[in-house]
Amino acid sequence: MHSFPLFNKLPVFPQRWMVFMGALLLFGMMPAYAAPSGSQSFNSIEQAMRATVGILSETPAERDSGFHGRLSVRGSGVHLRDGYIMTARHAVERDQGSTKALPQDILVMTSDLAELPAHLVGGSAYLDLVLYRVSEAHRGQLRTGAPFSTMDAQAGDHVFTVGYPLGWGPTLAYGRVGNPNTFLPTADTRLLQADLSACSGNSGGGLFNESGELVGIMHAIIKTDGQGDQRCSRLAFAVPAILAQRIAKALTEGTQPRFSRLGIQMAPIRVGTRWRVSVGDASGPAKDGGIHKGDLLVAIDETDISDAAQLKNYLMERTTPGQTVILRVLRGDRELKLSVILAGA
Asked: Could you report how far apart the first and last alpha carbons of the chain are, in Å?
């Protein structure tokens, strides 16, 4: 996981993985978890566990070259369907000189200890997500996948996560959604804040609702305890499913995910006792649609605009390039409705 002492970004390193303890937990030789107090069924929990994989530190190339380090995991991932594995980009990136690069091939390990090679499909640095696909010869060993939820997670919802914190697992942690509209400097999108235990190594694992559906992909924590590079916290953050699913859909279709561009530079301005969103500058689609510098943004498609983050979320999650949106703006004493055709970014 990305971890933050007072929101300062820290590096993430592979951790040793206690494989056999994880296997004992999963297959009932030791108590794996306390029964949830909500309505979660064993079936949804078991499905989530079997859909979760560990991202191994060793790549197939290293394995083939005869390099055999100690078995270790650097992150978590989740099998969506048909061999597609989604995880956090930073959980698989490797140092390549002064930059970071995605390996073309990785090794993942299932909850029943099958080690499977997976090839890069594509990724999004914008949202810290990446998609791999297990080779066809091995896909039969992925016995279940995790569906995306069709409903946005709301504050107070019961959720749980499955992963390999500190290289150990598979483990489960239960909690609730906190603020579903949180921002950190590691992703250009809103994040779901979840009140549950998570550590380095949970990155890329699923955040599930009570039905075992994905409501997010684990992304970051704020450090509250731990030593060295081993970080744990009860403040965890996940990329919302609505965005993760959009990335997965584009990549599986062989295209790059695109997001809408409005062409507005936003500036906060105080009107009376309230802060409102003002247009600092307009270009491209916004200018072509008649938006002027100094306009106050009121609503987009009848959804009120209370701050810049809300407008950005709406554009990313509810629109596509080429779509026409209706913006309500205040220009002096007049309220105007303006049609804008969104560009791509």
From this structure: 27
Nearest to 139 by CA among 122, 121, 120, 118: 118
Residue 10 — very low, low, confident or very high, per pLDDT cuts 50/70/90? very low
Question: 110: number of CA atoms within 13 Å, CB side?
Answer: 22
- Report whether pLDDT(33) > 50: no
Task: For 259-280, give the DSSP string.
Answer: -EE--EEEEEEEETTEEEEEEE
Flag whether pLDDT at 11 surpasses 70.
no
The sign of the dihedral angle between the CA atoms of 287, 289, 295, 301 is negative
**CA–CA separation, 22 vs 30, rounded Å?**
9
Least confident among 58-67, 148-157, 195-204, 264-273: 58-67
| Gap between the Cα atoms of 160 and 150, Å rounded | 17
**Rounded average pLDDT over 252-257:** 89
The conformation of residue 128, written as its DSSP 8-state character, comes to T
Contact 169, 54 (CB under 8 A): yes
Q: Do 47 and 80 meet the contact criterion of CB atoms below 8 Å apart?
A: no
CA distance 313 to 39: 31
Which of 24-33, 205-214, 265-274, 335-344 has the lowest average pLDDT?
24-33
Q: Is the dihedral of CA 133, 134, 135, 140 positive or negative?
A: negative
Residues 6+ apart with CB under 8 A from 213: 146, 147, 148, 149, 150, 241
Q: What is the pLDDT of residues 94-108, one digit of tens each?
A: 888 778 889 999 999
For the chain, domains (ranges, CATH) are 1-257 (2.40.10.120), 260-344 (2.30.42.10)
